[in-house]
Amino acid sequence: MSGFIGLGQDEVTRADQLIPVDTHLAAILAMLPTPEPIELRTADGLGLILAATATSSVTLPSADNSAMDGYALVADDLTAATRAQPVRLAVIGEMVAGSSETLTVARGTCVRIMTGAPIPPGADAVVPVELTLARDEADGDHVAFHRPARAGDNIRHAGEDLVPDQELVAAGRRLAPADIALLSAAGVARVVCIPAPRVVIMSTGDELVSADREPGPGRIRDSNGPMLAAMVRATGGVPFATGAIPDDLAALTEAFESNLGHADLFVCTGGASAGTRDLLADVIAALGEVHAVKVAMRPGMPQIRGRIGPTPVIGLPGNPVSSFVSFEVFVRPAIRALQGRRDVHRPTVVARAAEPLHAPSHKRGYVRVRLARDGASWTVRPTGAQGSHLISSIAQADGLAIIPEAVTEIRVGDEVRVMLLVD
Question: What is the pTM of this model?
Answer without folding.
Answer: 0.84
